[in-house]
Amino acid sequence: MLLLGNLHYILTHLMRRLQLFLLFSLGVCINCIAQLTPHTQQRIDSLFSIAHEPFFKQTRQFNISLLWIEQLAVQDKQFAMLAKVYIIKAELNLHAADTIAAITEINKAVGLLSYIDNESTVSNSQALLAALYIRAGNKNRGTNLLRQSALGGRDRVTFSDEWLSTIHARAQANALLNDNKALQLDYNGAANMARKAGAQPLYRVNNLFAESFLQAGDTNKAFEVLDALISDTGFTAAQTKQLYSRLIIYSVKAGRFGKLTEYYSRLKKLNNMVTGKELQNESLLATGLYKEYLGINKDAEAAYIQLVTDYEQHGPTQTNIEGMIRLANLYVKTAPYRASYYFDLLKKELTGGLLQTPTGKLYRQTLAAYKSGNTSPLIKQDTAYQNRLSVATRELEYQYQVLKEKQDNALLKQRQQLQAIIHAKQRQQYVLYILILALIIVVTAGIILLMNWRRKQARKTHEAEKLRLEHEHKAILAKALTKAQEEERAAIAETLHSEVAAMLAVARLNLSADERQATPANGKQIRVAADILARLTQTIRDMSHRLMPLGLKQMGLEAAINEIAKEINQTGMVGVETLFVNVNSAALPDDMQINIYRMVQELFQNMLKHAHARHAFLQVAQHTDSLNIIFEDDGVGVISEEKLTGAGLVMMRKRAEYYGGSLTIDTRNGGGSTFVIDLKI
């Protein structure tokens, strides 16, 4: 026996050594293969996603793959990949409720962060490790890491899967801390960035934050985050179906039943259009909750049973486990033995850290209700008592039904009478409303007609008054022009009488012989007479210009004005420059040309008489519906009020107003004057 025992010990020892050797050899081989594989990062991401499934169970193949990647990361000093391996290990330890081992792996990962160069990868790892610390019970370290991974710092990047993973981890950490304020701040920033990136990123962000708000116990906020997506477009049919399924689920959990029927009707239309196991499971859970809310427990039970069937065929998921919990809850009072069967199944699945999730809390709440339901005092009563109680109950129920029918009939009659009275009053009110409305319409129409009539009368009165004022103004202008013409004629008559007649008499005396001496005029007398006749010729020419400038008729407005400027320039006293812009004399009436000529003539005369200027500039510009005259000189200016109100300037203003225009004078003492005349064509 001793020999057999030693032999067994030796064989066992050899087998263990052989297993270690084979495992080491396998690891080395796989390590070499991994070095040649370009998709190592994809493999670690795949293992990471699998490890974070709520109901994931470790397998030998999973552990070997994780060991290979760890060896490769250590050998090649891939610190980011190695940190992710430690994060996966910590996640697995938390699944197994081994918090000490989990914290050990977390500490290893934290120690590697200082060797990672990529800031976004560091931020992502900090957020993941913060959530793991909090789940392991070390909230202080978790909070510190969470603060270091704040979204307001180096995480301000474009939308990417790594960025989404970071905010997901932060959301989970804040949910575990029940820090709804920080969760709301992260959601606002993430939603703004996702909204700029498009509909699909916004859908992903709102879904993950809805789950986080639900985990934090804020079911109302989870509902609002999903409800905000309804107005957006660009989602696929599958995403829309998932959205309405989750809206129904969150509405029931939040106690917000206002839009529940609307959501369910839209979900029914999408059920036949979109298929898929997980989508179908969420739709079944939403259907069960909706039917249970309506009290149609049979339909709710059918939906939950389909979820239990999915669990039996494909294994546990968060959706079918919740369906099983709610099915057990339906059976607590009606079929306790069935509830017991499902609670036994749930006990095997919900272990370790899963009991702290929302699904685990729902399970514990339902289990407590099931256990309290097994202690009903009515089950302990004897059979005879139950029979007597049953007969008495049926008799009372019959009497109650008879009384209820009588009361219902009497109440129905009263309601019918009341409805008839209400209808009669409503008809009277409708007639009264119609009459009042008609009266209001008639009065309003009368007021509108009266206001229109008064407006028309006022417009007519205004137009008549305007026309009268225009006539009066024109009459005043005509009177002023007539007066000016009479004054001009009087001046011409005075000139003829005083100057022309006198000059002619002197010339006649000088040219005629002395009758007493009977001798002819000598040379001196002839020269005096010739000089007098020359001055007489100039005087008569000036008078003819004052009456009607011949150059205006013969050469046109522009040439006539230039002729005046030429004559002034020939004196050598003043230099006059003229500029005509688009002036078309043929397009101007004759009387207007004469008045323009007179006003320019008056401007030149004022300059020669009063300004003592050395230079002057005249510009005449014609536009589509107006004509502008600008005259500038460098003389002494109009320095007295008497000159500003002189007859010449007053006459110029009257002429301008006659054509709907104006005269503006800008004078500076010692700095010249500017005259601007605007006329309407």
Automatic annotation (TrEMBL):
Keywords: Kinase, Membrane, Transferase, Transmembrane, Transmembrane helix, Two-component regulatory system. Its EC number is 2.7.13.3. It is an enzyme of class 2 (transferase). The lineage of its organism: Bacteria, Pseudomonadati, Bacteroidota, Sphingobacteriia, Sphingobacteriales. The chain crosses the membrane at residues 430-451. GO terms for biological process: phosphorelay signal transduction system. It catalyses: ATP + protein L-histidine = ADP + protein N-phospho-L-histidine. InterPro entries: HATPase_C_sf (IPR036890), HATPase_dom (IPR003594), His_kinase_dom (IPR005467), Sensor_HK_TwoCompSys (IPR050482), Sig_transdc_His_kin-like_C (IPR004358). Residues 491-681 form the Histidine kinase domain. GO terms for molecular function: protein histidine kinase activity. This is histidine kinase. The keyword Nucleotide-binding does not apply. PANTHER family: NITRATE/NITRITE SENSOR PROTEIN NARX-RELATED, NITRATE_NITRITE SENSOR PROTEIN NARQ. Pfam families: HATPase_c (PF02518).
